[in-house]
Amino acid sequence: MLQAILLMAPANQGNGGGGNPLVAFLPFILIIAIMYFLMIRP
Length: 42
Prior knowledge:
Low-confidence stretches: none
Mean pLDDT: 68
Helix content: over 70%
Order of helices and strands: HH
Structural class: mainly alpha
């Protein structure tokens, strides 16, 4: 799971380099949010 995030983050940053930085980080933030939700579930 962590490897997928590490691989996706640079790719997303590269694709969104010329545009809005938030667009490049959206998938990264979404994955972190999902992982956090799964971790806090009982």
